[in-house]
Specification:
The chain is α/β, with parallel strands linked by helices and 410 residues long. The chain is built from 13 helices and eight strands. Helices cover 42% and strands 14% of the residues.
């Protein structure tokens, strides 16, 4: 047997184990985050690859230590199965928890006439292979909306592509999205697949920009979000935006800004349209607690990140930490909140999201809580991944319930 053929099983089993082990290992540094984020999301592919490695390793046995290679490949396969093994129980628990809030009508298993516009299943292998199907949409990018302190800010807009009679204006329920990136990086073009999908479902989607730290410190970021909302309000009909059906969705740093937008009691700009719902993907909620109790390991250096944003520690600038913490604004009669966190997140720990959910419930607000046990921070970067499909299943039901119940009859 050639040396290359003899080494193939060892290489395949070792590569499979290296990739699969990040489903359970934490990211010790920022450089490892792509592995811990990606491994659970591509676990169906890893399962298939590890199964092939097992088959090849067993079939080519005329080389030293083949039994060790089989053991390695079997361990890799077992690790790669973990997300899908947990998935059915998680789906049952989430559906049970969310049905009392959203209502039976939005869940096919409990309705004699389930809505046809929604995804039928929380996860499908087909979508993980081909991608999640999306209809054609109208996409306009890099639309300027403000130039604060000489920094040009722009936004992207996605709309359903419909054939309408001339002079007909249809106002769509509208989703404002705010990207993450530790308040230091990112652009409105992030998460374009998600934005296209939501536009194909009948929403106008507006993806905002904001100024970045360290050049611009808080509250510059939330000021830019308020300015964008005013711009949206002034041009609502032009972009098929229904002022009375606005929701905001943010990711990480963007989720912190989304919650500030939704929860703030006295907007600095008068007469702005209300936010009817907020979706937070792994958003920071109590920045002082995050500073004082950073995760271990701490892949992004939480304290340094917050000092770059706010200009100091909680002891040095306590009022800024309070102003930047969404939990500071919790009170009765806030818009419904959907909070989505990864159980393995070491950038924004899920326990902070649970604290916010409990505080919202204690003040009489409507809140839906989703914790995905195998998921890390930014899991939805892989749009057709396991966790992204799962979260999308509940997001579109939550938004339909809050903004557009007429979608049931479509």
């Amino acid at each position: 047997m050639s040396t290359i053929l003899a080494s193939l099983p060892v290489i395949l089993s070792s590569v499979g184990l290296f990739l699969s082990v990040w489903i359970v290992l934490p990211a010790f540094t920022a450089a490892l985050l792509p592995l811990t984020v990606g491994a659970p999301e591509i676990s169906p592919w890893l399962m298939a690859g590890n199964a092939i490695a097992i088959a090849i390793t067993v079939s080519i046995r005329a080389y030293p230590f083949w039994k060790g290679s089989v053991a390695i490949a079997c361990l890799a396969f077992t690790l790669s199965c973990l997300p899908l093994v947990q998935l059915p129980l998680v789906v049952r628990q989430l559906s049970s928890d969310l049905q009392p809030t959203i209502g039976d009508t939005y869940f096919p298993a409990s309705s004699s006439q389930p809505p046809t516009a929604f995804r039928r299943h929380p996860f499908t292998i087909l979508d993980s292979i081909r991608g999640i199907p999306t209809a054609d949409v109208i996409h306009e990018s890099a639309i300027p909306f403000a130039t604060p302190a000489g920094e040009e800010l722009a936004l992207d807009i996605y709309r359903p592509a419909r054939e309408l009679p001339a002079q007909t204006v249809v106002l769509n329920p509208t989703l404002i999205t705010i990207y993450g990136g530790a308040w230091q990086r990112g652009s409105p073009s992030n998460n374009a697949e998600f934005n296209r999908y939501m536009a194909s479902q009948g929403y106008t989607v507006v993806a905002l920009d904001y100024r970045h730290a360290p050049q611009f410190r808080f509250p510059a970021q939330i000021e830019d979000v308020w300015t964008a909302l005013a711009w949206i309000d002034e041009r609502a009909e032009r972009y098929n935006i229904d002022r009375d059906r606005l929701a905001v969705l943010g990711r990480s740093a963007g989720a912190q800004l989304a919650m500030l937008l939704a929860y703030s009691k006295e907007p600095p700009i008068a007469d702005l349209p209300p936010i009817r719902a907020v979706v937070s993907f792994y958003g920071p909620v109590n920045l002082a607690s995050g500073y004082r109790q950073p995760p271990i390991p701490d892949p992004i250096d939480t304290r340094q990140t917050l000092e770059i944003l706010l200009g100091g520690s909680p002891d040095e600038v306590p009022e800024l930490y309070r102003q930047a913490s969404p939990i500071s604004y919790v009170r009765p009669n806030l818009p419904p909140s959907l909070l989505i966190y990864g159980g393995r997140d070491l950038v924004v720990k899920a326990e902070y999201g649970r604290e916010l959910a409990q505080t919202l419930e204690a003040t009489g607000n409507t809140v839906a809580w989703i914790e995905i046990p195998w998921a890390d921070h930014a899991f939805d970067t892989i749009f057709n991944g396991v966790s992204s499909q799962l979260s999308l299943y509940y997001i579109e039901r939550f938004l339909a319930w809050t903004l557009s119940p007429e979608i049931l009859s479509s």
